[in-house]
Amino acid sequence: MEIHSFPRQENCGLRKLTTNHLVAARLAEQAAGLPPGVKHPNQLLAAMRRAAPYLGYTRLLPLMETLFRWTQPQDWAPGAEPIVWPSNEELALALDCSERHVSRLIATAIEARLIVAKDGTDRKRRGCRQDGRILWAWGFNLRPMAARHADFVQAAEAGERARRLCRDLRRQAGQARQFLAQLLGLAQERGLPTVALEEQVAAAQQIASALRRSEEPAKLEALVAALQALAAKAREALEEAVESANMSGSADHDVRPKLLTKTPTEPEGSTVAAQEEVAPTPALPIQPEIRLAEDGFRISPAELVRLAPRLENCLGTRQPGWSDIADAASLLAQQLGISHGLYGEACQMLGRHPAAVAIAIISTKQAGHFHSTGPGGYLRGMLRRAGKGELFLDRSIHGLREAAGYQRLGQLTAVNSAPRSALASMAPRKVRY
Q1: Element of type H or E holding 250
Q2: How far apart are CA 42 and CA 247, in angstroms?
Q3: What local confidence, expressed as pLDDT, does residue 256 receive?
Q4: I want to staple 97 with a disulfide (CB 3.0 to 4.6 A). Which of 41, 101, 156, 177 is the partner?
């Protein structure tokens, strides 16, 4: 039987070196005693404990606390080396783990540049003290902890600042989510459309879930900014909807409720007299009238067309009936930007003919009369007032009649105040053949 012998390598059984081992050794050489402001080695351990969550050293804290139990304050004096030499068996007993796990923790601590190994020729840890001072020792040098004290303090302060910032950002995100929930409740209470708000609340929940999973301040700031922008947009939209719901009838408060009529006590230059003398309404076939108030106030299709000129552009006949007026009002509503569904809701609540009158009234308003929601918001506000019994279309018709009467009176006054020469030039001339 032939026996093969394998030569023993020179580095067999020695500790495997890495670049971090060399860095830890250099840190141990640079540190001379305790750093300024530190009077006891336990302060180094306290600084590391404070910075451990932000540096990823939390799992190494039990090992470092155990190693610091074997060191004494005089070991950190200048010219001395704070070396400890507990065996893996002792460390395993103190940490309540296996010796193999202790080996892994020691290797990790060296890689983290917290300790540096000082091995003897027999690779055993041992030492000797005399009068409390170390004469010689082989084990682990804790001097890198003194060299890294400033790093621990800086990392702890930066980590605590970042944690406070993240906490504030999450608080702001919670306030924005609560505000969105309050906006949704207000919209439901006022009977306003909530589809868009519900979508925004769902988007806010997705952003909040991403907030809980992130610990980066920059990413959290971007997410919170998006959430606050979402809340601001929802608030603006709800304010516009509330304003639109409350602005119906706002321009009709100072309209006199009584219709001007020609009585024996009125002067000849009154509004109604001017209206009859200057521009008499052409004779049209009698059309049925609708009643807009409990006191019997009525209006005919021809008069409604005269008071709302934009309605005439949507008519297909010169002698319209109420069915023609309703069809024309549907087209006029589309031109005003009022949705078909909203106009259908107005027809169901008010009736088809009063809804047409409402569209005609809206068409007489100037563009600056409406808020940002436009004619659609104005009509929705009218429907809300109608639901409360506070919508008076007859008063709006009174206002349109008065406005038309004042305009005709102004035309008559301009004609009466013209010079005789101008009136003579306007008279028809006789032509001789």
Answers
A1: none
A2: 72
A3: 42
A4: 101
